[in-house]
Structure formats: C-alpha cells, structure tokens
Amino acid sequence: DSPGNRNALSRAVLSGLHEALDRAEQSDVRAIVLTHTAPAFCAGADLKERSSAPADSTPMVRAMQRLIGAKQPTIAAVQGPVRAGGIGLMASCDLVVVRADVTFAFTEVRIGVAPAIISVPILQRCPWSKLAAPFLTGEVFDAHAARDMGLVTHVTSDVAQVVSGVVEGVLLGAPNAVAATKQLLR
Predict the structure, then answer these.
(1) Cβ 102 vs Cβ 79: under 8 Å
(2) Active site residue 108
(3) Which of 14, 37, 118, 183 is the most buried if burial means most Cβ atoms within 10 Å?
(4) What is the pTM of this model?
C-alpha cells in the first residue's frame, strides 16, 4: 500500500505483501484477495529505488510464486491502471476482476529492459501471439483487450460486488476440493 508512488514495487511494498501472504496462507483463510489503494493498482518496479541500489528480483519472484502456489484461490481486485511488474502480480492470481476503464501496459521495453520475470505467469495465462504487440511496443491497452488476451477473467463496473460474489462461490466449496481444483487448473 503505497499510493504516493502508484503502488510501485519497492522493497517496502514487497515486504508488506510477503507479510500479508504469511497471514493469508494460514489454513483458516479460504480466499486471498490482492487489492490496492488508488490511484493505481501497481506502476511496476520502483525505478527511483532501483537507481540507488542493485536490483534484487527475488522478492518479486517469490511473491508471484506464492500467489500461484497458494492453496487458496487468489483474486486480483483491480480498480486502477496496471503497468509492467504489476501485471505480473495480477497474472499470478487465479482470477482477475478489473473495472472496465482500467488500462494496462508492458512498459519495460520503453525503459530498456525485457519483461522477463513477469513473462512466466503471463505466458501461463495467454498465448504469446496475443502478447506480441503490447510486449514489443509498450502500448497501452484496455480491460476488454486484456480479457481477450486471457490476462483478465472479469470486466465490470463494480469490482467489489463481483469479487464478493466470487469469494461467496469459493466459500460454498469444500476447502480441500477447492484446493485440489486449483492445483488441477495450474
């Protein structure tokens, strides 16, 4: 939660995410919802922080692995723009619910890097041919294009209501059956 820098993936934000995941991975938790404070879901890496210290991608890689590997269904609740590494976090979730006016961009190429780390969960969700143009150009695309690519599962005007409905559906299932089904899907 760092709205001042558009929830960029700083060491502090990733540390906070890991602390939250420590709690969320406990057996009494039935679903994990990854959300944010406005104005943005996530602007990607904290470039100011990275310019002053060597980059360590380990916390980001671990966060994506934990979201993918959690026994509980993971749901990204997205109500603001998503860029670069933020798309990797979002794509690591099982379900992605976005507000219809949200925009996305793989901005890595525009700053001189390849989206290597985030490509792993993204390519598990989407065919490479649907990603080629946005990956290679860094162009902005909308929620409907993201759904067509396979990045997003739900596009809505009321994210909270849809997420609540999805969580209610998860809670109707037996915990072990839900966990086994998630494992089958992944």
Answers:
(1) yes
(2) yes
(3) 118
(4) 0.95
